[in-house]
Structure to design on (115 residues):
């Protein structure tokens, strides 16, 4: 509820980065397998993608892409690999994105409820 995406070093439990976000209500986040991109979203219906450097824990404070295509809250985001990102929403739609370009690749609709 603070509008920040926090990155933690799990073994030491140290907070290593905080990225300010547009939305105060983040409900989902994901890190790609290589640790170069982080996605997050929530009640603003938008998924933001930030460049990350896991080895130095540096983050881009300005988002790389704002993925805006959902008509409902973002309930989940998951990287399928280093570039393909899935987002799901309260609008009943799942979208596959190219996280490097911000382009929509596929749309999976027809769900009766939130996904």
């Amino acid at each position: 509820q603070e509008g920040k995406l926090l990155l933690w070093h799990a073994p030491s439990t140290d907070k290593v980065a905080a990225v300010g976000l547009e939305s105060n209500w983040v409900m989902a986040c994901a890190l790609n397998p290589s640790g170069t991109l982080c996605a997050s979203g929530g009640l603003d219906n938008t998924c933001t993608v930030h460049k990350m450097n896991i080895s130095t824990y540096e983050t881009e404070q300005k988002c790389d892409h704002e993925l805006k295509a959902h008509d409902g809250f973002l309930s989940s985001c998951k990287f399928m690999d280093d570039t393909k990102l899935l987002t799901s929403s309260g609008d009943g739609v799942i979208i596959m994105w190219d996280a490097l370009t911000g382009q929509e690749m596929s749309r999976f609709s027809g769900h009766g409820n939130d996904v």
Summary: DSSP finds no helices and eleven strands in the chain.
